Amino acid sequence: MAWILLVEDDKSIVTALAEFLEKEGFRITAVSGQKEALSILEEQAAKFDLILLDISLADGNGFSVCAAAKQITSLPVIFLTASGDEYSVVTGLDMGADDYIAKPFRPRELVSRINNVLRRAGKKCPLPEYQGLTIDPAKGTVWRNGEEVILSALEYKLLLLFFQNQGIVLSRTRILDELWDMAGEYVNDNTLTVYIKRLREKIEENPSEPKYIKTLRGLGYKLGE
């Protein structure tokens, strides 16, 4: 289980983000400022797997924390920033940051970024899971209740899209647009219907009453609550 040091001085963001990430299988230690962050890194750096770091802090800035952290640890760093300007991005990466994400961000996009950085750093990260259905993005495999489910490339990409947007209603138009980008091949409306049917036949115990990919008539499809 990956342990994240969250350095953020906005209490509302800390509360919401910590709750969400803990549900995703991460452990979170949150601090609000530069001094506190450096102190905990000096004393407990070995227990952490990644630093999630806001640029604007009440008693300093994330750039200083990142620079100091890279001197005393090899922990990967992801910047959270409300600044979309090129200077902030370049400065953060020059300081040794491994990635950055601009606020406001989609929580699942952040989880995907965290997992990618952890994998690059050779650290274990929790696999996306929903009611016994598990997907391993690094290996491109899917498991249901411990048994591997064999999917075609496009079926896998379709399921991955649902996992990346868990709890969000995806319209057919958005799914088609996303699959075009992911698959690099043309997928039309009729083909999408076929692939969703095939995917349900492989992952659902009862495809006629799906518990994973649910249809919301007139709206689209959704995985999860």
Topology at a glance:
Layout (H helix, E strand, L loop, with lengths): L2 E5 L3 H13 L3 E5 L2 H11 L5 E5 L1 E2 L2 E2 H11 L4 E5 L4 H9 L4 E4 L4 H14 L8 E2 L2 E4 L4 E4 L2 E3 L3 H12 L7 H12 L5 H15 L9 E4 L3 E4 L2
Parallel strand pairs: 1-2, 1-3, 3-6, 6-7
Antiparallel strand pairs: 4-5, 8-9, 9-10, 10-11, 12-13
Helix pairs in contact: 2-3, 6-7, 6-8
Total count of strands: 13
Strand order of the largest sheet: 2-1-3-6-7
Average pLDDT level: 86
DSSP strand content: 15-25%
**Helix/strand class:** alpha/beta
What is the tally of helical segments?
8
Q: What would you give as the CATH superfamily of the largest domain?
A: Response regulator
The largest sheet, given as strand count, sense and whether it forms a barrel, is: 5 strands, parallel
- Could you estimate the helical fraction of the residues in percent? 40-55%
Structure characterization notes:
The protein is elongated. It has 225 residues and is an alpha/beta fold. The longest helix is centred in the last third of the chain and has 15 residues, at 189-203. Helices cover 43% and strands 22% of the residues. Strands 2-1-3-6-7 form a five-stranded parallel β-sheet, sandwiched between helices. A four-stranded antiparallel β-sheet has the order 8-9-10-11, covered by helices on one side. The chain contains eight helices and 13 strands. It has helices at 11-23, 34-44, 62-72, 86-94, 107-120, 153-164, 172-183, 189-203, and strands at 3-7, 27-31, 50-54, 56-57, 60-61, 77-81, 99-102, 129-130, 133-136, 141-144, 147-149, 213-216, 220-223. The mean pLDDT is 86. The chain has two domains: 3-120, 3-Layer(aba) Sandwich (Rossmann fold), CATH 3.40.50.2300; 129-223, Arc Repressor Mutant, subunit A (Orthogonal Bundle).
